Amino acid sequence: MKYNLPKEYLSYSSFDLWNRDKDAFRRRYYENEKPFETAETIFGKTVHEELSPDGETSIRINLNEDLVLLGYLDSFNEEDLAIVDYKTGHLNSKGKAPWDKVRVQKHKQLVFYSLLVLLKHGKFNPVVQLKWLETKFKNKLMAFDGHVLHTESRELMLTGFEQTFTRKIFKWEIEKLKKEIISSAQAISKDYTLWQKRKSLPSHKTI
Fold it and tell me: Any idea what DSSP says for residue 5?
């Protein structure tokens, strides 16, 4: 089928947002509302730029005749097709880390990237890595009336601690995700077409 998508491609972030929060997806991609940026997202972008001075590896490729996928891989080795994804994040109020083996195992972004590599190269490396770089908020020192005050700013820093998670991607996971992507693309296409039709209707003003 021909897809009518708000962008000419489907990325992992758009696929994920559609399945998590359809209203947020519509605001972001139909109405071009800028995403809300936090200290965490801004700092994460900065770290990714530092880790990939030559830029991320982008793969733009057709899943089928009418559906284009796009992904940006933090680290990709052309020789052995190894994928490494970097994530930043800090401990929550209970001291729990944002990433663990279970969450990494469920993280579909790694499967999405493996799908892109498979489509482009005809094969993929089943062993992928996710590296979590721990962050924390800086403590800000302020002098006032002879006293040194400690206040928390919203500026982040790396603690120096990192943890690497390795997981294996199976072919059945990729095939399952392909079906989910196609199903989501079909749903987005129908929804976006209806939204466009509603937007094109003349507004009726009451006197």
Answer: -
Query: Is residue 130 classed exposed, middle or buried when 0-12, 13-18 and 19+ CB atoms within 10 A define those classes?
Result: buried
pTM: 0.86
CA distance 98 to 190: 35
Q: How far is CA 58 from CA 55, 76, 91, 136, 186, in A?
A: 9, 10, 30, 29, 24
- Residues sharing a CB contact under 8 Å with residue 171, sequence separation 6 or more, in sequence order: none
Domains in the chain, number: 1
* Range(s) of the domain holding residue 91: 39-61+71-181
The reply to whether 99 falls in a domain is yes
Pairing mode of beta strands 83-89, 127-144: parallel
- Residue 79: closest CA among 57, 51, 61, 63: 57
pLDDT tens for residues 156-183?
888 999 999 999 999 999 999 999 999 9
Rg value, the chain, Cα? 21
pLDDT digits (tens, 9 = 90+) for 89-124: 999 989 999 999 999 999 999 999 999 999 999 999
CB-based contact 108:11 (threshold 8 Å): no
Domain assignment present for 128:
yes
Of 107, 122, 118, 121, the closest CA to residue 166 belongs to: 107
- Domain membership flag for residue 55: yes
